[in-house]
Design brief:
Blueprint lengths: L2 E6 L6 H10 L3 E4 H7 L6 H10 L12 H8 L3 H24 L5 E5 L14 E6 L2 H12 L3 H10 L3 H7 L2 E4 L5 H23 L1
Parallel strand pairs: 1-3, 1-4, 2-3, 4-5
Helix pairs in contact: 6-7
Length: 203
C-alpha cells in the first residue's frame, strides 16, 4: 500500500517548488497537470471524444488539442464544462491512482492544484497545503506568467478560498517568504515525518 501525500495550494503558491524539494529527497511525484495533458494527447480516446463533441476546429494543425480554443468554448458555458469534466475527471483519477500504486518510494506526493475543489482529499493519507497570502499569489503569478491582474484574480476567485484549503490541511508549509533555506528545512522535517508515517502503515 502506497502512502500518499496530497499536495495542493492556490495559483502562485509554489507547489512545483515544494514538490521539487521533496523529489530531491527521494519522493516519487505524481503530477495531476502532467496526467491531464497526457490523457488528451493525440491517439488518446479522450481527445477523439473531444474532437467529436466540439468539432475538428478544437484541434491544432498538428493534431494536438488546441487548449486555448477549448478554454474559449467552455469558459462561459457551464454545460460544456460539465461535459468535459465528466469525460476527463474519471480518466485522470484512474491514472493518478495507478501512478500512486506504481510508486516505489516510501511515500509519494500527489500534486493536484484542485485537490480540495474536486473533492479528491479522500485519495490521500494526508493533505499538505502550500500556503501564501492572496497578495503574494497575485504578485508572483503576474510576474511568472506575464499576465494582467484581472486574469489572475479571476483564476483565484474560481479556486477554493485560502480558508477552505487550510481547513482541509493536515500539514501546512508557509511559503510567503523568499527564504529557500527555510523552505527546504520545512520540507526536510515533513519528509522525515512522512517516512515514519509510511513505515507505520506497512508494519
Amino acid at each position: 500500500m502506497t502512502y500518499v501525500i496530497g499536495l495542493t495550494g492556490g495559483i502562485g503558491s509554489g507547489k512545483s517548488t515544494v514538490a521539487s524539494l521533496f523529489a530531491g529527497l527521494g519522493a516519487d511525484i505524481v503530477d495531476a497537470d502532467i496526467i491531464a495533458r497526457e490523457v488528451v494527447a493525440p491517439g488518446e480516446p479522450a481527445l477523439a471524444a473531444i474532437a467529436h463533441h466540439f468539432g475538428a476546429g478544437i484541434l491544432a494543425g498538428n493534431g494536438e488539442l488546441d487548449r486555448r480554443a477549448l478554454r474559449a468554448r467552455v469558459f462561459d458555458n457551464p454545460q460544456e464544462k460539465e461535459w468535459l469534466n465528466a469525460l476527463l475527471h474519471p480518466v485522470i483519477r484512474e491514472r493518478m491512482l495507478a501512478a500512486c500504486a506504481a510508486s516505489t518510494s516510501p511515500y509519494c506526493l500527489l500534486v493536484v492544484p484542485l485537490l480540495v475543489e474536486n473533492q479528491l482529499t479522500s485519495l490521500c493519507h494526508r493533505v499538505l497545503v502550500v500556503d501564501v497570502s492572496p497578495e503574494t499569489q497575485l504578485a508572483r503569478t503576474v510576474k511568472r506568467d506575464n499576465a494582467n491582474e484581472a486574469q489572475i484574480r479571476a483564476i483565484m476567485a474560481a479556486q477554493a478560498s485560502r480558508e477552505q484549503r487550510l481547513a482541509a490541511a493536515d500539514d501546512v508549509i508557509n511559503n510567503n517568504s523568499p527564504d529557500q533555506a527555510g523552505l527546504l528545512k520545512e520540507v526536510q522535517q515533513l519528509h522525515q515525518y512522512y517516512l515514519t508515517q509510511a513505515q507505520a502503515i506497512t508494519e
